[in-house]
Amino acid sequence: MKVLVIEDDPDVAEFITLALGIGWPGVEIELAESGEKGVELVGNTNPDIVTVDLGLPGMNGFEAIKNIRTFSRVPIIVLTVRGEERDIVRGLELGADEYVVKPFGQMELIARIRALMRRQQAPPDDAPVVCGRLSLDFTKRIARIGVKEAILTSTEAIILKHLISKEGVIVPHAALAERIWGASYPEAADAIKVHIRHLREKIEDNPGNPRIILTRFGVGYFLVKPG
């Protein structure tokens, strides 16, 4: 496995390098101390996964993610001390796949990377998923409701498929996190909220007043069959 670590703090970079060496002996690690260099290396070295710090000199982590997403779908994990919801939202909206707040343990980082890689490498599921007027082609990540068609991210497809399978049943935040990442973590509910909002924008007639994906505040979400 080849990993690109975009991090300007040498102590943090060493910590990440040690964790990757524990999880994947023989892993090939490329280091970039700036966003500009990180974007360049993504294009030149084609890594399997990228970790990005947000507080980079020059081009910050947000800008680096935005630039990478103009030409690559490489899995991106944000590693940062910024745990505010607005930063989580912005990182995910720009195209990050995962968000880990510092300080974090080496085993937590290994587990989160493994979960992300499993999602990327999972074999295709060709079985269509249907709930009333709503259908999901999980392999192509296309949701259809009436004449509306929307392309989903992999995380959105996982969430929608699970909610459809549990139609009418409240799915707790932790259960959705387990389905998406293989484990729950403190920031999972905020990250899931972002993905739910994006899903509503894609399949609801009025995302501000949803009728399909509903919230049970403080608990989780449930799906109502579209009539």
UniProtKB/TrEMBL annotation:
List every position bearing 4-aspartylphosphate: D53
The molecular function GO annotations come to:
phosphorelay response regulator activity; transcription cis-regulatory region binding
A single GO cellular-component term on record: protein-DNA complex
One of the GO BP terms on file: regulation of DNA-templated transcription
Q: Which residues form the Response regulatory domain?
A: 2-117
The chain positions of domain OmpR/PhoB-type read: 125-225
DNA-binding region, residues = 125-225
- Alphabetically ordered keywords of this record: DNA-binding, Phosphoprotein
- This protein's source sits in the domain of life called Bacteria
The keyword tRNA-binding is assigned to this record: no
Question: One Pfam family name from the record?
Answer: Response_reg
Identify the PROSITE patterns for this entry: OMPR_PHOB, RESPONSE_REGULATORY
Concerning SMART domains, the annotation shows:
REC, Trans_reg_C
**Protein known as:** Response regulator transcription factor
The organism encoding this protein is Dehalogenimonas sp. 4OHTPN
